[in-house]
Amino acid sequence: MIRICTICARGGSKGVPGKNIRPLHGRPLIGWTIQQAKDSQLFDIIAVSSDSDVILTAAEKEGADFMVKRPVELASDTAGKASAIQHCLLEAEKVLGKKAEILVDLDATSPLRLVSDIEAAVKLLEQSDASNVITGAPARRSPYFNLVERGKEGVVHLSKSLSSQVLRRQDAPQCFDMNASIYVWQRDVFVNDPVVFYADTLLYEMPESRSIDIDTELDFDFVDMLLARRLKGEDNG
């Protein structure tokens, strides 16, 4: 089974400037994800894609196998991540000299995942006939119960409705917040149609404590605190 891991990290970040190489407990943020990929021992190659030479240099020092310089058109604020992942995958395959069967993308800004999360998400896909697996945590709000949309003239209504009214949140269908931590695809499915959702997409559930995706300074503070607890042995994840 040939597996390729991609880690995509743009140089530009408005919410947390320079976040991908910002120091976090002794190493750049991206280093935590690279180390998790290495520790899983699942991958034939770990490729990091970035438009930033500084990030690529940091990734090489942290032990990534292959650094991919991302084209400018795939690194803008409006460019979708799927295109960057696809570019990174195809470049990595050129170096590897063979096509992958499984593609795994790990988000550099989600360092609280465990190696066991990566292993379980990959196993879930490989033991199924599904096209891909995404990860998420139980949602704090339900579109069937207490998540509303604002319509015309400021009037609000529930985002989704059922044939009968949901009186308790527990009675609503299970909903999850995507945590952007781990994406696993059947390689050929992704290359032919590089999207996140297919008709048979599966979800690997992770707890909220491992699902923070750093997008703001407050997110970074939370991750810093939770990782400190884990390193001290106060939290096993």
The whole-number mean of residue pLDDT values reads: 93
| Annotated CATH topology of the largest domain | Spore Coat Polysaccharide Biosynthesis Protein SpsA, Chain A
CATH superfamily of the largest domain: Spore Coat Polysaccharide Biosynthesis Protein SpsA, Chain A
Give the total of domains.
Answer: 2
**Main sheet summary:** 7 strands, mixed
Radius of gyration: 19 Å
H/E series: EEEHEHEHEHEEEEHEH
Strand order of the largest sheet: 5-4-1-6-10-7-11
Termini gap? 29 Å
Give the class from helix and strand content and strand pairing. alpha/beta
Give the % helix.
25-40%
Write down how many β-strands occur, each being a DSSP E stretch of 2 or more residues. Answer: 11
Q: Under the CATH scheme, which class of the largest domain?
A: Alpha Beta
CATH arch. level architecture of the largest domain: Alpha-Beta Complex
How large a portion of the residues is in β-strands, by DSSP E?
15-25%
Count of DSSP H/I helices: 6
Choose one word for the global shape: globular
Low-confidence parts: none
Keywords: Nucleotidyltransferase, Transferase
InterPro entries: CMP-NeuNAc_synthase, Cytidylyl_trans, Nucleotide-diphossugar_trans
GO molecular function: N-acylneuraminate cytidylyltransferase activity
Protein name: N-acylneuraminate cytidylyltransferase
Can you describe this structure?
The chain has a 7-stranded mixed β-sheet, with helices on both faces. Strands 2-3 form a two-stranded antiparallel sheet. It is built from 6 helices and 11 strands. The longest helix has 16 residues, at 81-96. The mean pLDDT is 93. Helix 1 (29-40) crosses helix 4 (115-126). By secondary structure, the protein is of the alpha/beta class.
